[in-house]
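cache lookup: miss for this entity combination. No prior model stored, computing from scratch. Input as submitted by user K.M.:
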Amino acid sequence: MSDRLHGKLERTAVGFMLAIVVAGSVGGIVEIAPLFTIHETVEDAPDMRIYTPLEAAGRDIYVREGCYACHSQMIRTLRDEVERYGPYSLAVESKYDHPMLWGSKRTGPDLARIGGKYSDLWHVAHLINPRDVVPESNMPSYRWLATTQLEISDLGGHLAALRAVGVPYTEEMIASAAADAYGQSNPDSDQSAGVTERYGDETQVSAFDGVKNTVTEMDALVAYLQVVGRLTNAAYENTAAPEQVPDPNN
Amino acid sequence: MDFDHETMLELSKVWGLLYLILFSVGVVVYTFWPSNRARFDRAQTEIFDKDDTPWR
Amino acid sequence: MGQLTTGEREFASVILLVLMILGIAMAAAGRFDPMGVHGGMVFLYSGALLWWILTSFFGKEPDASRFSSYYDDPIKVGVALTLFWAVFGMFIGVWAAAQLAWPSLNFDTAWSSFGRIRPAHTTGVIFGFGGNALIATSFHVVQRTSRARLADQLSPWFVIFGYNLFCLIAVSGYFMGVTQSKEYAEAEWYADIWLVIVWIAYFVLFVRTLARRKEPHIYVANWYYLAFILVVAILHIVNNLAVPVSLGNAKSYTVWSGVQDAMVQWWYGHNAVAFFLTAGFLGMLYYYLPIRAQRPIFSYRLSILSFWGITFFYMWAGSHHLHYTALPLWVQNLGMTFSVMLLVPSWASAGNALLTLNGAWHRVRDDATLRFIMMAAFFYGLSTFEGSFMAIRPVNSLSHYTDWTVGHVHAGALGWVAMITFGSFYTLVPSIWKRERMYSSALVEVHFWLAVIGTLIYVFAMWNSGIIQGLMWRTYSPDNTLVYSFVDSLLAMYPYYIARAFGGLLFLIGAIVASFNIWMTVRTVPVAVQASSDAPLPSGIYGATTSPAE
C-alpha cells in the first residue's frame, strides 16, 4: 500500500470520527448550554441557606450509603405527589447541591420534604432498625452509624472543595468547620453559638442522636435529613398550581 | 458572559432544528449516493471471505 | 506473552513499575482513607502482572511471522474476564434483589447493604461484563473486517488489564462507600482519570487498526464500535468533572450542581445506554449475526441510516428522565420528541436483523446460538419501543420512580445486551480457539431457555409491580383523598420482588452454565483441522458453504 493511499484512508477515518463527534455532541450542547444561565429565570430565593459542616457531612453519608438508590428528592408537578409529599421541588432548592440527589427510583418514599416531618428520635430509631418503626419496611438497618465517630478533622477540606465548585462558604466557615460540627450536635457547648452565627438562626442545633459530647455519623445523617427541603421557604411561597402552566416563551 | 438566557434559548431552538434537518439530508444523500452503492454491496458480503490471517 | 518482543516486555515492565509506585503513593497519601486500600490494590495488581512478565522475560522471542496472523490472545483473556464479571455482577444482582424481599440478608454489615451493592451490581454487569465483552469482540471484529492484525502488540494488553483495574477499583470502592452517587458513573475521581487514560489507548489502538484496513470502506460494525468508543469518552469526561477534597482523599464534589447536574447526569446516563449498551452491541450484531446465519445483512443501507439516526437522536433524549421535575419544560419536551423519533432508527436496526434471518428460520430452530442472537434482536425491538413509550410525558408520570423502569432496563440488559453477548461468544469462542464446535450444544440449549425464562419472569414481575405501584400512588377515593399510603404500595411489591429474584437467579445459572461450557470447550474439545485457505470463497455464500462451527 502506497503512502498516499494510506494517508487517504486515515483521512476518511478522521473525517468519519469528526462526523460522529459532531452528530453526537450537538444534542447535549443544545440542552445543557442554556442551563448555564438558568438562574436568570428561576425563582429567586434570598433566604437560601447553605449546608452546615455537619449537614454536609450527613449528605456525604447519604451519598456513601447509596440512599439515593431507593429515595428520590424531587417532587414532581403532579397533584398526587404534591398531596402526598408536599410542595413540588423548585430548581433553586438544589442550587448548591453537588451532586444533586433527585434520584430515579422510589423503593422508599420521596424525601424532598422530609426535614422537620419527624422528630430526631424517630429518625434515630428508624435508622437503627426500620422495622421497629415501620413493620412493613424493607429498608436495611444502619445501626453502625450510631457507634461510628464522625471524622470531623477534615471537614474544612470538604467545605473548601465545595467552595471550589461554587458553594459560597467563607474562609471563616472553612476554618471553624470542625468546631461547628461539634457545636451543632452539642447544644450546650461553647461551640454551638458560632453555628447559628455563621449559618443563620434557622439552623437546628440539637443532640441529634440523643447522645451529647460525641459527634457520630448518626448525628450527621439525622442533621442532614432534618434540613432536606428546608434551606429555603421558596417552595411554600410558590404553590399556586400543582401542575406548572406551560410558558409558550420558555 | 454577555449571553443572557433568552439568547441561549434562541440559539438552541433555531439552530438546533436547522442542524437536525441539514444533518438528516446529508445522511440520506450519503446513503443513496449512486457511486457508494458498489462499496456498500461489497462491504455487505465481504465479511464472508473465508480466511484466518491478515491480508499483509 | 509469547507474542511480545524483549523490547515490548521491557516497556510493559516499566509501565507496571510506574503503576506500582503510583499504588504506593496512593496508599501513603490516602492512609487514613479508603483510597489507601485502593493504593494497595493497584500495587498488588500491577505487581502480580509484573511478576507474570518477569517469569517469562527471557523466554523465546516471537519471530516476524507473528504479523501474518490475527492477534487473538488478548481476546481470549477478554472472554475469560467477561465471564468472570458476568457471574460476579449477576450474583450481586440476585443478592440485591433478594435483599428487597428479605432486608436482613445484608447480615447487618455496612458493606453489603443494598445502597452499596446496588452500584456494585450495575457496574459489575455494565462495565465488567458489558465493557469486557465489547472490548474483546471489538478486537475480533475490527481485525476480521479490516483484514488486519491489531496495530500494536502491547496496547491491547494495556487496554484489557487497565480497563479491568478500573472495574476492580470502582466495584471494590462501592463496598467501602466510595461513590459519587452519579448513577452508572459512581466511580470516584482517580478511577475516572485512569479510565480516561485506558480509553485513549483503546481509541488509538482501534483507529490505528482501522487505518491498516484493506478496503476504503469501513464495515458498519466498526462504525458502531467507533461511536461507542468516542462518545463514551465525551460522556465520561463531561459527567465526571469534579474537584477532589484532597489528593489523598477519595471523596470529590462534582462541578455541576442542581438542575444542571441533573441534566448532565441523565444526558450521560441515557447515552451510556445508547452508546455503551446499544451502539457497541449493535456492532456485535452486525458482525456475528451475518456470520452465524451465513447470510449477508438484509439491507446495508438501512444499517447506515439507522447508525446516524441513533448517533444523532439519542443525544437529545436524556431529559426524558426528568419529566415534571424542575428542569425547564422545553427541555423535557425536546427530550420526549427525540425519544419518540428514536424509535425509527431503533426499529430499523431490529427489523434489519430479523429480516436478515428471514429464509434461515430452520437454522434458528436448530441452532441455539443463532436463537440467542434472534432473541436479542427481538428484545432490542421490544425495549426500544417500550423506551420511546415511557418517554412520553403522561406515561412517564406513571412509570417514573417505579419498578417499571427497572423492568425496562432489564428487558434491555438481559434480553438484548446479555443475549447478543452470549450469542456472539458461542460463535467467537470456537473460532478463536480454533475448535470445531462448542463442548456441548445441549448446554447452549439449556442456557438459552434459562436465559429466556429468567428474563421473562423478571420483566413481567417488574411490569406488574411497577404499574401497580404507579397506580396505587395516584388512586383517589370519591371524596378526593389519596387511598393508599406509601407502605401499602410497598407491601404489594413483596411477591414481585421474590419473583424478580427468582428470574434473576435463573439468568445467573445460565451464565454459570455458559462459563462452564466455554471452559470445557477450551479445555477438552479437540483442535479443528485448519481449513486451509487464505483466499476468499470461490463463489456464492448462500448456504453452499460449510455450516458454522458448532
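stored under new cache key. The two ends of chain A are 57 Å apart (CA to CA).
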